[in-house]
Amino acid sequence: MNYVYVIDDDLQFCKHLSSVLSHEGLEVKISDNVIEMASKVNQDKPLVILCNVNVGEQSGSKLLRSIQANPQTNHIPFIFMLNDEKHSREGLLALGADNVLVKPFGFEELLHGILT
């Protein structure tokens, strides 16, 4: 099964994304815990990871680096989600993110980010 990971400390937002993506036929796993999901990436090999830059006290950047360092997972697209534009889009792309979406983002922008 190809999963989409949605990692954010706003679980209502995660549930909304899960509903939207499930409607498109995608299986979604949501979490507010970067460390928990990092431990599952190798097993699940998700289709794409959508992760907030900061999830509580945990850093999405650390998850990205761990995925990039592993030859079994470094091909998985990683999309950062931002609550605002205080983080540099260019800086996050330079870290290796495949895309950066600023909330609120539209359904078309989300699907484009996942499917491209």
What does this structure look like?
The protein is α/β, with parallel strands linked by helices and 116 residues long. The protein has a domain at 1-51: Response regulator (Rossmann fold, 3-Layer(aba) Sandwich). It is 43% helix and 24% strand. It has helices spanning 11-23, 34-44, 60-69, 89-95, 107-115, and strands at residues 3-7, 27-31, 48-52, 54-55, 58-59, 78-82, 99-102. It has a 5-stranded parallel sheet, sandwiched between helices. Strands 4-5 form a two-stranded antiparallel ribbon. The longest helix is centred in the first third of the chain and has 13 residues, at 11-23. The model has no long low-confidence stretch (mean pLDDT 88).
Approximate shape: globular
Oligomerization status of the protein chains: single chain
Main beta sheet: strand number and arrangement? 5 strands, parallel
Report how far apart the termini are. 19 Å
C-alpha Rg (nearest Å):
13 Å
Helix content: 40-55%
Question: Would you identify the CATH architecture of the domain at 1-51?
Answer: 3-Layer(aba) Sandwich
| E-strand count | 7
CATH superfamily of the domain at 1-51: Response regulator
Low-confidence stretches: none
Strand order of the largest sheet: 2-1-3-6-7
Q: Find the structural class using helix and strand composition.
A: alpha/beta
Q: What is the count of helical runs?
A: 5
Question: In what range is the share of β-strand residues?
Answer: 15-25%
SSE string, helix = H, strand = E? EHEHEEEHEHEH
The CATH topology name of the domain at 1-51 reads Rossmann fold
Give the integer mean of the pLDDT values: 88
InterPro entries: Bact_response_regulator (IPR050595), CheY-like_superfamily (IPR011006), Sig_transdc_resp-reg_receiver (IPR001789)
Keywords: Phosphoprotein
Organism: Algivirga pacifica
Protein name: Response regulatory domain-containing protein
